[in-house]
Design goal:
Blueprint lengths: L1 H14 L4 H20 L11 H16 L4 H7 L7 H9 L3 H28 L16 H21 L11 H19 L5 H20 L3 H8 L1 H16 L2 H18 L3 H15 L2 H4 L7 H19 L10 H8 L15 H38 L4 H16 L9 H22 L4
Length: 440
């Protein structure tokens, strides 16, 4: 059952970038195995520093839902709290270095698949304008760019601090299979749009199985092929972010990569600056069209943030209730706002304060600060100990990227992004549990 739990977590990691349904199914099955192991006393549920803030945040979310104008709909939206089970499942599963490497390799597989489809959509399938941006397997460019951001930062952490093997042509079979599979799915979608659903589902199922197989395999050839994944995920994922034309993800990935560079060696910041300067000089269409703060989406954000502040001032304790922004926004909308409605406020902190009140924001901030502090402590230890500690740096860089991008987008409202954030958050806690010699 231990290997089953690991395989399901790897399948979850592989499918986060391509299918939220598949990832949630893997989470449900993994949680069921985890519960059975707890009942059989194979493992124990040990406390973590995140328990108290998470419990407070969950309780306050449910109370806010109860005081909403539509409690039934608010409680329905609050079911997203169940995704936080992923953190405990991952901490339980990843208490050895081999398991962490395998599961993150599975994540890189999904990231390469998503980046490949985004690039194909932009360059070959006509998804090359602001009105038609590439969304990859996830269907929406915001979700795809949020996931790609986390994958690129994690892969860069692997390259910057992990033990590297020289890329060999004989090890390209895994990447080749991924790219070929994505290209085949994209081609079938063009040739026979109505028949494209089944090949996509088969690809997702195959990716889940392949992710589990990679995590569970002890074969040197498989590990060598998986070691090539971050070499592909960084440049391909970075270009996919560029053509997504999603500015919050651009800012977030630069912040995350900058932190990784500082941990590795501050001199790497010059390399990051050179890449950014090159992009500004070349000014590809996907970039030049977005270098403005006077476009409609930016103006709309300004006015929706004003409306969000009014929502908080009106109901500072329990807020409007989870999932209530779309219903109440017309009451608070400023007349100058370009759009009459919005499902969320395009800012993580303001969204939480408006829907759960200031206490809800305080509990969430508590959770974030503890997660960041733990990741920072483990990242410092990883730098002086060994290359095996790179996942802690990936967690720290990824969390910073999500939070910085979340200043301009409610990215944690996307289940895919939240699940990836929780998976990365678990890594330093799992490493700490491993060093303490305990299990969950």
């Amino acid at each position: 059952m231990e290997r089953t739990q690991l395989g399901l977590l790897a399948a979850l990691a592989a499918t986060i970038p391509v299918s939220i349904f598949a990832a949630e199914v893997a989470l449900a099955l993994g949680a069921a195995v985890f519960a059975v192991r707890l009942l059989r006393r194979e493992i124990r549920l040990a406390p973590t520093p995140l328990d108290a803030p998470l419990l407070a945040y969950a309780v306050w979310t449910l109370m806010s839902a109860s005081f909403a104008t539509d409690p039934a709909a608010a409680h329905e939206d609050a079911k997203e709290l169940l995704l936080f089970l992923l953190f405990y499942l991952a901490v339980s599963t990843l208490t050895c270095g081999r398991a962490r490497e395998g599961v993150i390799s599975a994540l890189f597989m999904g990231g390469v698949a998503l980046a490949t489809l985004v690039v194909l959509q932009y360059h070959a399938l006509g998804y090359d304008s602001l009105n038609r941006r590439p969304g990859g397997f996830l269907g929406h460019y915001m979700s795809s760019s949020g996931v790609l951001m986390g994958v690129v930062v994690a892969a860069a952490s692997r390259l910057a601090l992990g033990r590297l093997e020289r890329p060999r042509l004989s090890n390209t079979w895994l990447v080749g299979a991924l790219v070929t599979g994505v290209a085949a799915v994209a081609a079938l979608g063009v040739v026979a749009p109505g028949a494209g659903v089944l090949p996509t589902r088969l690809f997702v199922a195959g990716l889940a199985a392949a992710g589990a197989a990679v995590a569970l395999s002890d074969r040197a050839s498989v590990r060598a092929a998986a070691a090539l994944l971050p070499w592909v995920a960084v440049p391909l994922g970075a270009w996919a972010l560029v053509v997504s034309q999603t500015r919050n993800a651009w800012i977030g990935v630069v912040a995350g990569l900058g932190l990784v560079a500082v941990v590795r060696t501050p001199r790497l910041l010059w390399g990051l600056a050179a890449v950014l300067a090159a992009l500004l000089l070349v000014r590809p269409t996907a970039v030049s069209s977005r270098l403005t703060v006077s476009d409609a989406s930016t103006v709309d954000r300004y006015y929706m943030w004003q409306a969000g502040v009014d929502m908080v001032l009106d109901k500072p304790v329990f807020g409007q209730g989870p999932g209530m922004i779309l219903a109440v926004y017309p009451q608070y909308r400023w007349p100058e706002a370009p759009n009459p409605t919005t499902p969320h406020l395009h800012n993580n902190a303001l969204q939480i304060a408006a829907t759960r009140g200031l206490p809800g924001l305080a509990f969430f901030t508590w959770w974030v600060l503890v997660a960041l502090a733990t990741a920072l402590a483990e990242a410092r230890r990883a730098k002086v100990e060994s290359s095996a500690g790179w996942p802690a740096v990936a967690a720290l860089g990824g969390l910073v990227a999500f939070l910085v991008a979340g200043l301009f987008e409610y990215n944690l409202g996307d289940s895919e992004v939240l699940m990836l954030a929780l998976l990365l958050t678990s890594l330093p806690f799992a490493r700490r549990r491993e060093r303490a010699g305990g299990g969950v």
